[in-house]
Amino acid sequence: MNRIAAQRVLQAVAAAASRGAPSSQALISAAGASSLHAAGQWPLVAPALQRSLHASSHLWHAQAQPVEKEASAKAGASGEGASATGATIGGAQEGASSKGSDEGASSSGGGAKSQDEEGAGAKSSGGSSRGFDAQALWQTVQKDLRETLSPVQGLRSYTKKYKGAPYQAPEGDYNGTSAISVVKPQQTPWQKAWNSAHKRVAHIPILAKLLGFKVQDTSAYKKGEEFVADLKEKYETSDHPMVHKVEDFKERVFSGSEASQAMHEIRTRDPAFDMNLFLRSIKLDAPIVTKAFLKHDMASLSDHCGPEIMQRLEGLCAALKQQELHEDPTILFVGDAEVVEVRVMDGDPFVIAQFHCQQLKCVRDKFGNVVEGSPDTIHRVYYFWGLQQEKAGVVTADGELLPPRWVIKDMLWQSMLALI
User: Fold this and answer.
1) Are 304 and 285 in contact (CB under 8 A)?
2) CA–CA gap between residue 36 and residue 44 (Å, rounded)
């Protein structure tokens, strides 16, 4: 997305907010008049701007009411002070004949000056409060638009196939260090004391026999092992209901749920796995895969999808091509991805994720005539992806280890008319 256009949007919103109380329609009009609207990218920014303006408008009105009450109270107090000052000045003028006019003038000037100072103080307090609200609005809008417009640093695709050259081990014999030396391990003080005592009593026959005694060589120990093995075999082959209840209880308590087993396997294969980054990566891949599906781009779909889903998509796209129909690939908005279920399937972790897109519902024939929907019909389409983690990652030619890829094994979608 054009960063210059995004910066112009922020400048337009800041200029509109600095003029006074923020109006959602005024700020949206100011942002819509920027070059981002002319570039056709305004639908991507409008939802984020609308959310931030709605929140800041409530914040503005909630803070404006105490400010107005405080200003009215100050105005009433200043009016009462002015009337009292006028009465005192009038009495002083009647009582003092020689200095009445001068004191009255100076008092009235002081009263006017005090009123001006109070008015300036109220104005400054109101201006600071108004400036604080505008600054809070500006920070909220700037943060929301930055998250919408700016790409996430270091975010990679979890579903895209690596097409580069893998790492190749150097050919030939190893020429590095190959010498082996035997190093005697250092003994602890306890080991040194034990060895010294053992040497002292080794010549005594009875003590030497006791030191060389092993329980595993006795007949009683061997009979006990055979008895335990027979009991274990009988327990494992038993069909008693109590045995099954005990095994079910052990499985529930010690093995954990299916989701916990799947997460354990995911962390085993990828110790640095982060579910939040995984969902943000799905949101990053969502418009790419969806547009490739709407454009019938099988090459781009094969970079993200597995062979099972590719057979289904190839059949759907072949049917549309045979009818010479083309879908509009315009996507207006992509929602956040959510995890629906985490489970283990065929020994591999399997995650079902959900997101929705706002896209145009318009199907045209080879002549460009609309046969279904219209260019102005917006549908909200809910997508469900079934992603399966591969067993191992890939080492690139530069020696970088890429974590195991998540392959799209299944895809479902449901369309519904968006109310606008």
Assistant:
1) yes
2) 10
Kindly state the tokens that stand for 320.
């549309």
CA 297 – CA 38 distance, rounded (Å) = 28
Candidates 326, 291, 333; CA nearest to 418 is 333
Q: How far is CA 248 from each of CA 240, 244, 252, 262, rounded to the nearest angstrom?
A: 13, 6, 6, 20
Buried b (16+ CB within 10 A) or exposed e, 368-399: eeeeebeeebbebbebebbbbbbeeebeeeee
Largest CA distance in the chain: 135
* Residue pLDDT, tens place only, 152-185: 566 788 999 888 888 877 777 767 777 777 888 8
What is the Cα 256 distance to its own chain's centre? 27
Which amino acid is residue 340, in one-letter code?
V
What are the Cα distances from residue 387, in Å, to 148, 214, 341, 342, 412?
A: 25, 55, 11, 10, 12
pLDDT per position as a tens digit, 212-234: 777 787 888 888 999 999 999 98
pTM over 0.85: no
User: What tens digit of pLDDT does each residue of 362-402 get?
Assistant: 898 888 888 888 888 888 999 999 999 999 888 888 888 89
d(CA 289, CA 381): 14
**How far is C-alpha 117 from the geometric centre of its chain's CA atoms?**
51
